Amino acid sequence: MNALGLGLFIWVAVHLFPSVLPNKRQLLIKRLGNNAYQGIFALIILVGLILIVLGWRTSVATHLFTPIELLRLPSVILIIIGFILMVAANFSDTRFKRIIRHPQLTGVFIWAIAHFMMNGDSRSVLLFSVIATWCVVSVLTINHREGAWIKPDTTAGWGKETGIVLAGIVISAIMIYFHS
Q1: CA–CA distance from 42 to each of 11, 13, 36, 159 (Å)?
Q2: Do residues 68 and 111 touch, judged by C-beta distance below 8 A?
Q3: Do 128 and 116 contact (CB within 8 A), yes or no?
Q4: With 70 as the cut, is the pLDDT of residue 180 above it?
Q5: Most buried of 5, 15, 76, 174, CB within 10 angstroms?
Q6: What's the rounded mean pLDDT across residues 17-38?
Q7: Counting beta carbons within 10 angstroms of the beta carbon of residue 157, is it exposed (0 to 12), middle (13 to 18) or buried (19 or more)?
Q8: Mean pLDDT over residues 10-31, rounded?
Q9: Which residues contact 26 (CB under 8 A, 6 or more apart)?
């Protein structure tokens, strides 16, 4: 599980860097330029993601607990809600953004918790607990950095928000269908 742990460390460190060390981030952008900074940022995240996938596939799962069968359906519903929020994060003028300050991180958190509830092996516990913790820490550090929340105006009509919900459901259905 070394590659999985290293990949998760890289993922968390790179994602938290802008929130925890905003001055260092600005200094790097000034030195490298915004495009180069974002390219390096994306490349390091990709390395972390590759390590997570390879680590997952090569690690031996140890049984830690037996998931509760009654939580299977609620977990699937939570995954769908998570994907809806991840889609909603891409639109600034919706009721989603007016109600939830960080829909992307909230959606990933819900997704991670749902997966944690459905898997009782060591690599799942590591992966989904780290991802869920990263989401919480990210929300806290971003809120600290940005200060008071100024809720955006809601200009989107119900059609756009219905589209977001439908897109989240379709993405969930595709992911569930192809998920082994």
Answers
A1: 10, 13, 10, 33
A2: no
A3: yes
A4: no
A5: 15
A6: 92
A7: exposed
A8: 93
A9: none
- Say if CB 111 and CB 127 are below 8 A apart: no
Average pLDDT over residues 1-13: 93
Q: How far from 135 is each of 26, 111, 128, 159, CA to CA, in Å? A: 22, 11, 11, 29
155, 93 contact by CB (below 8 A) = yes
d(CA 72, CA 120): 13
Residue 5 contacts residue 125 (beta carbons within 8 Å): no
SS3 59: coil
CB 159 within 8 A of CB 40: no
Average pLDDT over the chain reads: 93
- Give the sign of the dihedral formed by CA 85, CA 9, CA 55, CA 28: positive
Compute CA 12 distance to the chain's CA centroid, rounded to the nearest angstrom: 10
